[in-house]
Amino acid sequence: MAQPELARQQNTQLVLAELKAACATCNLRELCLPAGLSNEELDQIEAMVNICRKIRRGETLYRAGEVFDAVYAVRSGFFKSRVTYEDGRDQVTGFSMAGEILGMDGIGQGSHNCDAVALEDSEVCSIPYTRLEELSREIDGLQRHFHKLMSREIVRESGVMMLLGVMRAEERIAAFLLNLSQRLNARGYSPLEFHLRMTREEIGSYLGLKLETVSRAFSKFHKDGLIEVEQKFVRIRNIEGLKQIYAHHVN
Amino acid sequence: MAQPELARQQNTQLVLAELKAACATCNLRELCLPAGLSNEELDQIEAMVNICRKIRRGETLYRAGEVFDAVYAVRSGFFKSRVTYEDGRDQVTGFSMAGEILGMDGIGQGSHNCDAVALEDSEVCSIPYTRLEELSREIDGLQRHFHKLMSREIVRESGVMMLLGVMRAEERIAAFLLNLSQRLNARGYSPLEFHLRMTREEIGSYLGLKLETVSRAFSKFHKDGLIEVEQKFVRIRNIEGLKQIYAHHVN
DNA sequence: CGCCAGGTTGACACTTTTCAAGCCGCGTGG
DNA sequence: CCACGCGGCTTGAAAAGTGTCAACCTGGCG
Fold it and tell me: Which residues touch strand D (CB under 7 A)?
């Protein structure tokens, strides 16, 4: 037992060394970090971001109940956040792509509130929370930036409440597709053609719908010439049409 | 004219003086502030919390789109937060009672994301955000406490997503009543008898239901001996029964 | 090659909404 | 002081939307 464990530790250290000093050249920097940092501040931040963990598809970054000690910046890949309910029912509460921050739900109670599951092989930067607190006191742009990220998460969730509370099935799905499209676009990918990383069931869970309803809506949108769908591949053919559905399309 | 005006000013100063230095003796202190502050730190915080605004029933504390410059601690009264959608549909995204913090949605984009409307005559402590940022750097417990409050708001909202996404009407309403009951209890009020500050329509909006559905659920609960309802007055007669409904009561 | 997860589609059931009617309590104005 | 109006609430019946169940298809992988 002792030998492999030692080997694993050494290997971990190696990985650590390789992945230092990434922030300065990271093309997601503008999403994670405030603008206008000095070189010195950037050095401090890079020293804080101390691990780049790889998470395989299907594995969890953290689970509900685990001790919270870090937030994570998604470097590559795709995650879902999932809350499980006492009686076994669960719900997907969000999807996270590169440049987004995961784990802020854990600060309040010191343990995570949800599972973060990789939907494809992914990499994350780990940011120990106590270091983040300290550094926030020294670099004032960092404090404000972190507050903004948390606040945006609050706003994002109230947008989802809107989805779930007032929209009907097709509106929810149009809104979902448009949101994905817009986020991909912001990252330099095509806003009109993309692969869904999640199953129909996961989309449904997120939107408060059953997978059959999701499937039917996709079929309907296809019939109406709004999109093409082939398995997980989606092409948006009429984005204005989608927007009309999203904006309370009354038949 | 001069006389009463002068008197009013003096009176105002008196009120301000009275309302300064309130945190130290505020019985909601443990909700707003971290534990273990020194007297000096408390003085600094009291200097930051600079106004106690009164908001009449029906008036707004802030509106969506207004410039964000402060967060608010509810000192007394009751608020709803409401997001209005482009096409006019709106949704209640939360209810806030004494000791809770409002306005953190505004940090991310520098303007408020929702309206905060008083459901009864209320008082709030106003906490200018830039001062809060500065002080967070000096008093480390304060920074962490503020992060916790924001994080809890994130967790609260994902709880609401659960309500909206996976529960059926009666479960949602049982959960709503139990949540109110628990929060009132934490503030020293009876957990079994209380007045609803909001209408059926507002409850419905919050829970993604129509007011008729809310009304029917109340009637059903009454018929089953779980609660008594008379207009806005609610008495819980069988809290375990409510919890069973909430926890996926199948039939 | 066959299995299996994931997806699609149809028929039917159930929940919730919609529409409508009427009640109650409260504040206002005659 | 009473009549009135009105917002808020309750209840019923019918309609609409979504879920449930079941059959079948497809593509990827062992």
Answer: A 168-170, 204, 208-210, 212-213, 231, 251; B 196, 199-201, 211-212, 214-216, 218-219, 229, 231-232
